[in-house]
């Protein structure tokens, strides 16, 4: 069902709440951690909207600004700088009115694709976070995402992208002339300003630019030969899109947002970063937000079994086996956080980082894992037993050969 742009801000929808929680709950620990780099933080909401929904609920700009204020109120650091920017093509005046009480915020009327490079040009050395939440797929030019990681000298760069992957598959079918499922499959998937491309060579190139390659064409062709269902095609596209992003960002995670279990995801929230801590924070964030998503899917009903972010049943034994299989490949010492993040790159955010750590700690107890800690001893001269890897405590692990 396609809806008009203006309806979007009348009432905040449940899926927007999950999306905004993913942003707000991530930003808090992200800011707290990244303040310690003592470099300016540049936060850019590239498709900011009105700031606030007409029912009074906060939009992504208010969520970010409130989170920033909260973090700065708590930090003991004196020397910090956070600069928020809000770009929107249609709602700069609403943004000005709704963000007035937040003092100096920069509102940029215009198109993200025209403004972003100018805005980033003098931000080298900064920590940059981009929130990218467009209506459809047409603004998601992969070339820009690639340039953010290769052409600027930021201290760090992170992206949180709302990718309408089912919209991409639908357009892929259209431009390659592949028959598409009965439209009823999309009935619950309300879209605003959905992208509609013609079946021609130019459109094929548009989709190549969005996907960052032509790998999507093989997926659509496999679907046409009935080798893949629409669900499998969407999941494969999301997986390959994340793999493509990993060529430019070390850690890429995605959370499908489904309003009902068994449905196609409404969209996928994709997080890309080169920072191991950012990846681990987002893993825990996805696991935490999943509770809200599940509550929405089940209409508040209790479920007898636990599920993960992908609606797969949680099998603790299986997670345990995966951890052992994975960590037994580390024959040389490696920093704990890097091992954890690589585990989640392979298997997805199937559990919180603390779950993996507690399995690893047990393996140490069984003599299967060697652990090097720095500092090796506590102030009281006892052997350290922490299992963390941060500014003050460093841990390296390797499989006991
Ligand atoms: C999904 S809404 C954003 C909602 C917002 N993130 C929130 O949570 O409140 C997408 C926004 O993108 C704006 N927009 C559309 N095309 C744009 C473009 N090319 N550049 C920047 N903004 C655009 C629309 O006006 C709309 O406000």
CATH architectural category of the largest domain: 3-Layer(aba) Sandwich
Q: What is the terminal-to-terminal distance?
A: 58 Å
CATH homologous superfamily caption of the largest domain: Vaccinia Virus protein VP39
Work out the count of structural domains. 2
Order of helices and strands: EHEHEHEHEHEHEHHHEEHHEHHEE
SSE blueprint:
Elements: E1 2-3, H1 14-34, E2 41-45, H2 60-74, E3 82-88, H3 92-98, E4 106-109, H4 112-120, E5 127-132, H5 142-150, E6 156-163, H6 165-175, E7 191-192, H7 201-211, H8 215-224, H9 230-245, E8 251-257, E9 267-273, H10 276-298, H11 316-327, E10 334-335, H12 336-347, H13 353-365, E11 369-374, E12 394-399
The structure holds S-adenosylmethionine.
Explain this structure to me?
The chain folds into 2 domains: 2-298, Vaccinia Virus protein VP39 (Rossmann fold, 3-Layer(aba) Sandwich); 316-399, Arc Repressor Mutant, subunit A, CATH 1.10.10. Strand 5 (127-132), helix 5 (142-150) and strand 6 form a beta-alpha-beta unit. 42% of the residues lie in helices and 15% in strands. It has helices at residues 14-34, 60-74, 92-98, 112-120, 142-150, 165-175, 201-211, 215-224, 230-245, 276-298, 316-327, 336-347, 353-365, and strands at 2-3, 41-45, 82-88, 106-109, 127-132, 156-163, 191-192, 251-257, 267-273, 334-335, 369-374, 394-399. A 7-stranded mixed sheet has the order 4-3-2-5-6-9-8, with helices on both faces. Strands 10-12-11 form a 3-stranded antiparallel sheet. Strands 1-7 form a two-stranded parallel sheet. It is an alpha/beta fold and 401 residues long. Bound molecules: S-adenosylmethionine.
